[in-house]
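Dear Dr. H.,

I hope your travels went smoothly. While you were away I took the liberty of generating a structure for the chain from your last submission, since the lab meeting agenda had it listed for discussion. I wanted you to have the full record in hand beforehand rather than looking at slides cold. The sequence, exactly as received, is reproduced here:
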Amino acid sequence: MKIRKKVEIVTDSLDVAEVIALLDEIGVSGYTIINNVEGKGGRGLRIGDGLTDMLRNTYIMVVCNDKDVYRIVEAISPIRKKFGGICIVSDVVVISGNVPDVR
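The corresponding predicted structure, in token form, is as follows:
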């Protein structure tokens, strides 16, 4: 078992490529993406328009070390402030799988 941080990002589907580019630039070793996430937030209901990625949200989860969590949050803050979305950081215990190194 390894103690790590989990970063959960819900962002507009149109911003996913930019978020992934930032994660790659930081050197994040892995992430999970779930498309077409629906819900309601400060900007109202997000259920998509049925035809395009407009008005759809995407969920991105990253498990990382303490150092990378701050770099991720700082890097995506401009996107989140401009287009909305949410970023949640929590402590997690990783039982198995590819556990990011502690640097």
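Two observations you may find useful: Residues 26 and 101 are 14 Å apart (CA to CA). Strands lie at 2-12, 32-37, 39-41, 44-46, 57-64, 86-94.

With kind regards,
E. W.
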